[in-house]
Write a structure and sequence with these properties.
2 copies of one chain form a homodimer. Chain A is α/β, with parallel strands linked by helices and 340 residues long. Chain A contains 12 helices and 19 strands. Chains A and B meet through strand 15, strand 16, helix 10 and strand 17 of A and strand 15, strand 16, helix 10 and strand 17 of B. Chains A, B: GO terms for molecular function: oxidoreductase activity; zinc ion binding.
Chain lengths: 340, 340
Amino acid sequence: MRAVIMHAPGDVRVEEVPDPVIVEPTDAVIRITATCICGSDLWPYRGVQKVDGPTPMGHEYTGVVEEIGSAVSGIKVGDVVVGSFVASDNTCEICRAGYQSRCVHQVMMGSIGTQSEYARVPLADGTLVRVPGEPTPEQARSLLAASDVLGTGWFAAVAADAGPGRSVAVVGDGAVGLLAILAAKRLGAERIIAMSRHADRQELARGFGATDIVAERGDEGVAKVKELTGGLGAHSTVEAVGTQESMMQAIRSTRAGGHVGFVGVAHGVELDGTELFFSSVHLHGGPAPVRRFLPELVDLIMTDRIDPGVVFDLTLPLDKAAEGYKAMDERRATKVLLTV
Amino acid sequence: MRAVIMHAPGDVRVEEVPDPVIVEPTDAVIRITATCICGSDLWPYRGVQKVDGPTPMGHEYTGVVEEIGSAVSGIKVGDVVVGSFVASDNTCEICRAGYQSRCVHQVMMGSIGTQSEYARVPLADGTLVRVPGEPTPEQARSLLAASDVLGTGWFAAVAADAGPGRSVAVVGDGAVGLLAILAAKRLGAERIIAMSRHADRQELARGFGATDIVAERGDEGVAKVKELTGGLGAHSTVEAVGTQESMMQAIRSTRAGGHVGFVGVAHGVELDGTELFFSSVHLHGGPAPVRRFLPELVDLIMTDRIDPGVVFDLTLPLDKAAEGYKAMDERRATKVLLTV
């Protein structure tokens, strides 16, 4: 089959590799119908994260079940499915508490790669969610978003305790931040403040439900959020970047007793204990347990109540993956969909 | 009146100072009946925190209302009262959300001093809670504990989401840590792991409801907690020390999706963002909003359902405050009560 392989920073190729096979009886092999390039794929692409020889890429996917292991009973060959970037049994104590991204048997799909024609999915019964009916092209695109960026944005909004009567600030206007706005809106938040400097993303933010835009960053951005929230700061703040500046912007934009949901993979972030102590915020985040939300997200998508797929602003065939990486690296695209 | 004044590290004196008077119409003046020395009073005593000239000390207190300002309506002269270490209006948006320690009009009682015969209490209607009936000596002692250490331990347990079906680990065996054990027990936690190396405090911990004692610290302590919790870590962890080691011990002792309540005033603590991200814990803490819990705590104490006052292991008259500071500094006492 064809698969995207990263050889070195900036060197992404589509190559022939062996077809995946069932290894464990709990595995499934799926035919990928759509996959995409993640912001986190840019870390090795840019050389910030080490590339140890040729590496299969990708961890977001929708597909059709091609083959199942002998112990798989919840899905069958031919099912349209979506799963998260972490394979999980969905039965251990941690999964049952809603933290499938930290399942005691977790397998990172990124270690397998899904920017390819087929993929082996471990713990298939726990990992994959069946999609009812035949998705339209728009729904298919949105299901792919559910696999990571929507699920992650949704978790961030939940971790930030977004809901009715709450003011929600969102730091970061990438796909995850934008979809956290969509999530906050669905969760009932009244005031949603998008922190964004880009006109095109501001427009998407408004489309998803943002009521206010703050273009300022750092202390000025914090001051603006306070101004919009009676001087107190937001009840709920989503952090969807992962830098020192964005984390501090999120914490400082939040009122005492408020909640910060952080999902940007922290790179070089150090939090000062004394400042955190006196901030009196709730802080929660980490790799999003997307699986917790998938059944609800699939339902919302298949009944056309949300359309998160609009965050994909460039669609390319798998063979042109290198072009997709380049476009995202050069910020010409927010999120690239690869058709297979 | 007589009051405890700190002149320099190690130099604590009881001196004559002017009696407090009503300054704002929302003030009350109370006659202090009992006060105590806080672990945080040791920071300036040990020279870790700067002492800027003669400083009135103390922020914990029970007393009897002596005089009220013209705008005070909720309490009257002669009422037995208890309040927290932060004066708060209890009506602002932050107070109503349960964060009275971050009231928009907050006044730190430590800036006024309560190790004295009398004290001015700002925002008296919001700050003071009336005690019904006449407390016994044991109840009076426990009410004083409610003013800070019990209220802080209680908040820590609530912030750690302690409750039925939860395993709770407590890092720190000072008065706050010990009373967090009492709180966790009252909140319904089944398994309570006290991390303590001192036989006398282990005994108090068991008396308050600890089911397990872990004497190990750091990585070994974390390993022990995991061993006791099916390899996963505690659902809920209380941090009641405030050092780098204790914070990391608390975070690492907690399972993915679990809650860390931290109330040790962080000194020189730096949290690594990447580790916090992948810990997947909820982190919440800060100066405890003791006022939120005071009515319930007063009720539990006055109906003899809890006896937190046993944490006081040395009682001295106010005049011997210097001896009390010395005893706590030299760890001969956990918590010193000063009778007035």
